[in-house]
Design a protein that fits this description.
This protein has twelve helices and four strands. With about 375 residues, the protein is an alpha+beta fold. Helix 8 packs antiparallel against helix 9. The two termini are about 25 Å apart.
Length: about 375
């Protein structure tokens, strides 16, 4: 079936649809939930025989001191249900993680000072430096022992022994937390499996957030440079970047609307969408701005047929992954496929209803004359 040329007539009205969707997306973006990867906490997965009473399990977990963010009990194709429990950061574990990081940031220097005093340098200055550093380390270690419920005095231990004791205290605290969680789960569900528990500390989640932020910053800068090198004119370059930005905003809006959390998997899907959106935006802009045959509306329509075919083929593959995620209840598959499908739909709308309007209007205002191809354009002109 031949798709009619959507750019005939008053094509500028097409831009209303993506602009309204972007505004709606901005409304839903604050509703996005941060996954365990970015906020820290615990994620428990377990196959159970019967559907779990989610409110009851949440109440019993909270009665034991757990901070419950979300509980889901979903059927799986192989039979039974998959229990998914998202827990917030435990204050005791968070404090333990902070003290452990502080301890290991100091212990190597204290060990060096201790060796220096014992073997080579008995000067008052060296002893004073070691004493001050060791006192700080002992205070941190005693804090760790207190959280772990261990009656130990750090000042009575050699540095290497203290290192091993801190390692034991940290693992003891983590093990007790996991065992307590397992006991509550086993008391309320029917299962024969060991739960799979994933913990992400506050320091690790903060590191993920920082790296994700700088990845976005650096990629945006590099993409902007490459786009301006390709077109060397402001409006076509801006159109490419606006199309990619709208695509991501629509995907984020869908995440907020449908409750898809921001995790490492969904963040990777967003980065993939940026690359694909730039691909279709550059395809459109090259066809309309650089080619000389026919008029800009016809060139945009021909680019639309090519780009839409690409998008639909890729979308079909992610629909298959989404169906597999529903059958297997694998969260990573669900997050990647759901974000990709939403983003690809957004790309179709942003590229062909907004970006196309911008570049067609630009070319018609400048007399429909194609630009001379600048550096790098031959690589992308296709």
């Amino acid at each position: 079936m031949q798709v009619p040329n959507i750019y005939l007539g008053n094509y500028k009205l097409l831009a209303i649809i993506p602009l309204l969707l972007v505004l709606a997306s901005l409304y839903f973006i604050p509703s996005i939930k941060m996954g365990v990867d970015f906020r820290g906490g615990s994620h428990l997965e377990l196959l159970v025989e019967e559907k779990v009473d989610e409110p009851l399990l949440k109440a019993r977990l909270e009665a034991e001191g757990f901070q419950v963010n979300e509980i889901k009990s979903l059927p799986v194709a192989s039979g039974g249900y998959k229990l998914d429990v998202q827990l917030g950061l435990d204050e005791k574990l968070a404090r333990m993680d902070d003290l452990k990081s502080l301890f290991y940031s100091k212990v190597d220097e204290v060990s060096r000072l201790e060796s220096d005093v014992l073997l080579t340098n008995q000067s008052p200055e060296a002893i004073a430096r070691y004493s001050a550093a060791r006192k700080e380390l002992d205070e941190v270690a005693d804090g760790i022992f207190g959280i772990a419920g261990m009656q130990k005095n750090a000042s009575q231990q050699q540095t290497n022994q203290l290192r091993n004791m801190v390692f034991f205290a940290y693992n003891k605290t983590k093990s007790e937390y996991s065992q307590k969680l397992s006991d509550v789960i086993y008391a309320n569900v029917k299962t024969t499996q060991e739960p799979r528990l994933e913990d992400v500390s506050a320091s690790v989640s903060q590191d993920f957030v920082q790296k994700a932020f700088w990845t976005v910053v650096y990629s945006t800068i590099l993409v902007s440079i490459v786009v301006f090198l390709i077109f060397r004119t402001f409006i076509p370059s801006l159109a490419v970047l606006v199309g990619a930005a709208c695509d991501v905003l629509m995907a984020l809006g869908a995440m907020g609307l449908f409750g898809i959390p921001l995790t490492l998997a969904s963040f990777a899907a967003l980065l993939m969408l940026v690359g694909f959106s730039l691909d279709t935006d550059v395809l459109l802009t090259m066809r309309v701005v650089k080619r000389k045959e026919k008029d800009p509306r016809t060139r945009a329509y021909e680019a639309f047929k090519t780009g839409a075919t690409m998008s639909m083929a890729l979308m079909l593959s992610f629909v298959c992954l989404f169906a597999l995620a529903l059958l297997t209840q694998i969260n990573v598959y669900y997050e990647i496929s759901a974000v990709a499908i939403a983003g690809l739909i957004g790309d179709l709308i942003a590229t062909w209803l907004l970006n196309a309007v911008i570049v067609i209007s630009y070319m018609e205002k400048r007399g429909q004359q194609a630009e001379e191809k600048p550096i790098l354009s031959s690589i992308f002109s296709g």
